[in-house]
Amino acid sequence: MPEETPVLAAENVTKHFDTGTQTVRALENVTLRLYRGRIAALVGESGSGKTTLARLLAQFYPVTSGEIKLRGQTVSRADKAFYGEVQLVFQDPFASLNSLRKVEHNVRRALKLHGHESGDDQVHELLGKVNLTPAAEFARKLPHELSGGQRQRVAIARALAVRPAVLLGDEPISMLDVSIRLDVLNLLARLREEEGLALLYITHDIASARYLSDDIYVMYAGQMVEGGPAESVIQEPKHPYTRLLIDSSPDPERAGGSSAFTATAKLGEPPSLVDPPPGCRFHPRCPFAMDKCKTDFPPRTEFSDGSWTNCWLHEEA
Amino acid sequence: MILDVKGLNVDYISAAGAVRAVNDVSFQLRRGEILGVAGESGCGKSTLIMGLIRLLRPPAAITGGEVWLHPREGRPVDIARRTDKELRKLRWRSIAVVLQSAMDALNPVARLSAQFADVLREHGYRNVEERTAELLEMVGISPDRARSYPHEMSGGMRQRAMIALALACDPEIVVMDEPTTAVDVVMQRQILAQILELRQKLGFSVVFVTHDLSLLVELADRIAIMYGGRIVELGEAAEIYRSPKHPYTKGLRDSFPPLHAPVTRLSGIPGTPPDLRNLPHGCAFEPRCPSRFDECAQRRPELLDVGDGLAACHLHDRERTAHA
Predict the structure, then answer these.
(1) Which of A55, A66, A188, B131 could be a cystine partner for A12, CB 3.0 to 4.6 Å?
(2) What is the C-alpha separation between A272 and A53, in angstroms, rounded?
(3) Whether the Cβ atoms of residue B102 and residue B150 lie closer than 8 Å to each other
(4) Domain of residue B80, CATH code
(5) Domain A8-309: assigned CATH number
(6) Is the ipTM of this complex over 0.95?
(7) Is the confidence at residue A128, as pLDDT, over 80?
(8) CA distance A3 to chain B (A)
(9) pLDDT at residue B150 above 90?
(10) Helices B128-138 and B155-166, packing angle to 10 deg
């Protein structure tokens, strides 16, 4: 990953939610950095803390400890200037647009709120940027007249209206039809190149993370366990959890042998975050777990291919 | 063969007229086979299987066709024409269902044991507790969890309990509607491994509906691809993946980025799935098809044998004429 200052970063952040009777340890000492013109994918199972991390990055709620930094400066509270730089795209494009207002209203509102010129030209230019052409025609439609993919593109256009430096996408394609998902992924890739956006792509689909992103981060039960260039992480996973995720993902190339389905058949489930296992939280499911894994979270080991992992297996070597 | 579906039509009936969601669908399910049904939202795949088990609710209704069940014992039965009372005897014993959301399908205020007991008693089982324990163990749930309520279990465990419940009366066919869509990939693989293992042991057939073709290629023996309410291709799973005969199948296959093969730029399928209220006159896929020609807009292609399977596409007429 590059040496320059990240546009947006979570540095060593921890987030605990207090429910009154118990504490949910959602994130522990997690670091993630987003760079200009790069896409970082964040993968892991539900409950691993992906969305919590995105919400901390977006300043939806405060960190328990650690820092969120925008261009190297610690952000203490979210204001309009912060949201002028950091925008979110959500999973459900049916819920994220104002369904009573036309597309142009949805987009124009973001322009207005952030003090940009908000004429038809500006609205149409934004719709053009996300391939909703003819823009004038789409501008006059209501959200329910659009398909899921078109709606998600309106949501992206609205985020772009603010002229952000960072776009945080929380499962932006998982509710879309299979045949139009690539369309949205290709659009995000183009925005990275043309607008130099820093993008966070949260997904549980590791194949799409590989397709779209430059870097992949892997989380398990609130801990960041591995990260690095996408190809290194996918082709040579260092952490046993990353390996499990990749082996579990559908891979048609494997078709014909059912052996792939039995290899991981009885490996349990992620732990409760109210009372997580000590040490590495993956140790109860890990086929390589050692005594040390049950008491101490491993330090980071870095590899020559640019990737790193927190796993005692590699610290030994 | 255990199930023989012939020309099944399912309509959603409204004041403005009927919308045909499943249109002239025919296929055969073999004994012990896993038949995958893939397609995008609105292609009719869920409506099709709800039709197979006669769980359609108004305004949906079967308006034509036959669904012949050939049970181990007794004479063939046309499910499409049985009364609800007659169907009660077939359900669970001959044909069972696993739905997408176990949270919605299980009774939230009853313990698992009570829900298993309901099914088992209705179908004449005496050793209810033993059978419940046996079924839960079969899907890797500890029998002492029988006292749990659904909300006390994880999503994956609920889904496995649903599968155990479907297998309660040793059915010959299990119909599954996106049974793993709501769970994570690791749990998905555990569940699929279990389905394969149980099929091996118990010998039931499966109709498995999903939008995830890449998963189906690994799991199914044969795959049917649906588009606009019709089956547009049907063939061996490996063949569907390696050499799809219908351009829609090919587009769908190429919509899944590879996990290990070199990454190339993929484009998905342009356009959006068709509106069933207003289907094109010719092939329903014609407006989005990269290989379309004049004929496609004029005449709807029939589902025909193309050598390694069935496909409904005029490209194969051309080949046929060229060979003739």
Answers:
(1) A66
(2) 18
(3) yes
(4) 3.40.50.300
(5) 3.40.50.300
(6) no
(7) yes
(8) 26
(9) yes
(10) 120
